[in-house]
Amino acid sequence: MQIIISNSSKEPIYEQIYAQIKKSILTGELQEGQPLPSMRQLAKDLEISVITTKRAYEELEKNGFIYSIVGKGSFISEQNTEIMKERKMKAIEEKLLVAIQNAKEMDISLVELKEMLTLLYTEDE
């Protein structure tokens, strides 16, 4: 597992760690039951504070991506595909709402917005 921290990003470091581990879980790069590096080891590897890695791990655990066992470490949780799909759908909806609001502010019609979405969606096909 490789985590890259960007000092030029406006996103806090713990959120960068959270997002990258979450992505690795969702893409299957990290498998159920697989151990994560200890908070101290990850902090040392990334040359950041243990408090930062602790916060990232706490967010991952709170959202069901990992679980911790005292004295043993943190591990990848079993991922319920329906829950994961629902979370992704919610994230997409939130981003679409922002896009819709921006389109309305720019007086872009629904037809134009649909055309744009269709074009972007089929671009890689």
From TrEMBL:
Enumerate the UniProt keywords alphabetically. DNA-binding, Transcription, Transcription regulation
Pfam families per UniProt: GntR
Q: What name goes with this protein?
A: GntR family transcriptional regulator
Q: Does the keyword Transcription regulation apply?
A: yes
| Residue ranges of every copy of the HTH gntR-type domain listed in the record | 11-79
InterPro entries, sorted: Tscrpt_reg_HTH_GntR (IPR000524), WH-like_DNA-bd_sf (IPR036388), WH_DNA-bd_sf (IPR036390)
The keyword RNA-binding is assigned to this record: no
Where does the secretion signal sit in this chain? none
